[in-house]
């Protein structure tokens, strides 16, 4: 009986029986995403987590808005206002990058987020430091390799290599695709792999291997798609059929 009374006391003292005022103070210290997660525990926690005064405080704290600024006309609650500003927060231009001389076709970010790569119709691929302000770290011109333009890039999983896809111009102005692999450290060209057509961009399989592809025509109607497994560090184009 004593053990049962102790269990009842512990259950009564659990978080589900905290007064709403205490829950309010606890929830006030949470980040918005954590607060929404807490609201999934039970109906009572959900009700407290949607308290309008709570979201009003979170709104001013999260967005650093002066309290003289009131809620947007037409919004039903401070929770709705928080959502509205999160979904439609204005973008402010803080910097223009002029290093590309033609249309930028693709931008990719490293997994760590500290680098990004840009591809352009000016046939260059550039590596940028994303810490504000953006600064140019490396640039490679692919025209000496008979490329028409660069169109896609992707960092490998540990951000040590960059896959770059572009359009290769062959004899009689025939076009095909080609994938180039660069080292991030020093930005050296490590390998090149041909693929056809050029809208097969390729992708990383792991840190040292990438996948390319070919489309073979078999008569006027039938075609066959082939995937190739390539080593990122190969000197020449050496492919393994998948």
Automatic annotation (TrEMBL):
PANTHER family reported for this sequence: F-BOX/WD REPEAT-CONTAINING PROTEIN 5 (PTHR20995), F-BOX_WD REPEAT-CONTAINING PROTEIN 5 (PTHR20995:SF17)
GO cellular component, one term: Cul4-RING E3 ubiquitin ligase complex
UniProt xrefs under Gene3D superfamilies: 1.20.1280.50, YVTN repeat-like/Quinoprotein amine dehydrogenase
GO process terms (BP): protein ubiquitination
The protein, known as: F-box domain-containing protein
Database matches in SMART domains: FBOX, WD40
Protein species of origin: Aquarana catesbeiana (American bullfrog)
A family per Pfam: F-box-like
Entry keyword set: Repeat, WD repeat
Domain named F-box: residues: 18-58
Domain of life: Eukaryota
WD repeats: 97-129
InterPro entries reported in the protein's UniProt record: F-box-like_dom_sf (IPR036047), F-box_dom (IPR001810), FBXW5 (IPR042508), WD40/YVTN_repeat-like_dom_sf (IPR015943), WD40_repeat_dom_sf (IPR036322), WD40_rpt (IPR001680)
């Amino acid at each position: 009986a004593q053990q049962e009374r102790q269990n009842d006391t512990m259950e009564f003292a659990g978080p589900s029986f905290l007064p709403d005022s205490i829950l309010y103070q606890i929830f006030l210290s949470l980040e918005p995403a954590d607060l929404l997660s807490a609201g999934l525990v039970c109906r009572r926690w959900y009700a407290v987590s949607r308290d309008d005064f709570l979201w009003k405080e979170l709104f001013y704290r999260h967005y650093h808005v002066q309290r003289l600024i009131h809620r947007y006309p037409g919004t039903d609650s401070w929770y709705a206002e928080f959502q509205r500003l999160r979904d439609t927060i204005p973008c402010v231009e803080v910097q223009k990058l002029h290093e590309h001389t033609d249309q930028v076709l693709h931008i990719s970010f490293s997994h760590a987020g500290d680098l990004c790569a840009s591809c352009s119709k000016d046939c260059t691929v550039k590596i940028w430091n994303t810490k504000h302000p953006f600064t140019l770290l490396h640039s490679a011109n692919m025209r000496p390799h008979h490329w028409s333009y660069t169109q896609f890039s992707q960092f490998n999983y540990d951000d040590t290599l960059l896959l770059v896809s572009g359009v290769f111009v062959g004899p009689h102005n025939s076009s095909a695709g080609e994938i180039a692999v660069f080292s991030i450290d020093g930005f050296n060209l490590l390998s090149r792999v041909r693929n056809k057509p050029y809208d097969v961009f390729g992708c990383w399989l792991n840190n040292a291997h990438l996948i390319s592809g070919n489309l073979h025509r078999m008569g006027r109607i039938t075609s066959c798609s082939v995937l190739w497994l390539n080593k990122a560090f190969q000197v020449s184009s050496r492919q393994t059929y998948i």
